[in-house]
Design goal:
Layout lengths: L1 E10 L8 H9 L2 E8 L6 E10 H13 L3 E4 L3 E4 L19 E4 L4 E4 L10 H4 L5 E4 L1
Antiparallel strand pairs: 1-3, 1-4, 2-3, 5-8, 6-7
Helix pairs in contact: 1-2
């Protein structure tokens, strides 16, 4: 059975120089479409991609990723900042791996750049006023 999954991969520093995506295609027969990526050698990385192929190949590919220490996370549809709730505390800034959330200087107003967001969802649980929302 053919499946298609949109996922976020969290790469530890130790594997960012390895041909991980190549292995998914070559060894597991999975087709991929990279939606967003921020992966540099010797730094933690994030990649949002769509993987397609047979369900058994996807399961084996996912097991390979986990063996390499790569955390898989299902991709939610969207992250939204609710401006009515946000108090510009900045609690989310420190957990955002792509700097999609920043504090504007000198106003200290919280800014959200959806083009930088990889929809990892890390900002949602840390927001004390629930201003960062998952949109399904």
């Amino acid at each position: 059975m053919q499946v298609s999954h949109r996922i976020v991969l969290h790469f530890p520093r130790a594997v960012t120089g390895e041909p991980i995506i190549y292995r998914l295609a070559k060894d597991y027969g999975l087709m991929f479409n990279i939606l967003k990526a921020s992966v540099s050698p010797q730094e933690e990385g994030l990649m949002v991609l769509e993987l397609s192929g047979r369900d058994t190949d996807f399961q084996h590919g996912a097991a390979y990723l986990k063996e390499r220490g790569i955390r898989l996370q299902p991709l939610v549809q969207d992250i939204r900042k609710n401006d009515d709730r946000c108090v510009d505390c900045g609690a989310c800034v420190g957990v955002c791996p792509t700097e999609a959330l920043t504090l504007e200087r000198p106003t200290m107003r919280l800014l959200f750049d959806p083009d930088k967001c990889v929809v990892c969802g890390e900002c949602v649980p840390c927001c004390p006023v629930n201003a960062m929302e998952l949109q399904f």
